[in-house]
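Our preliminary data section would be incomplete without showing what the modeling component actually yields. Below, a chain of 74 amino acids is followed by its predicted structure, encoded as tokens that our downstream tools consume directly.
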Amino acid sequence: MDEWSADYGNNPYDDYNLIVEILYQDRDVAVIYKSENELKLKYYANENDLVIPLDWLLGLLKDVKERLDNNSSF
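Predicted structure:
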């Protein structure tokens, strides 16, 4: 699972709101952000099938929800 990671940052195109970029082998494959009081996951089209480990993703989503609900920024 070392090939998967997540980077927290601020979106300069959305008033610097907190976002989380999901990376596979250091390449952006998705982004999680908050819109209209709910979390959204935008998955970028990829020519290869990527199998996201759900236990890792679930833990990441819990952390993201907590940070976004607390209006954390970096």
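The first helix runs from residue 54 to 69. The chain is about 20% helix and 40% strand. Preliminary results of this kind motivate Aim 1 of the renewal.
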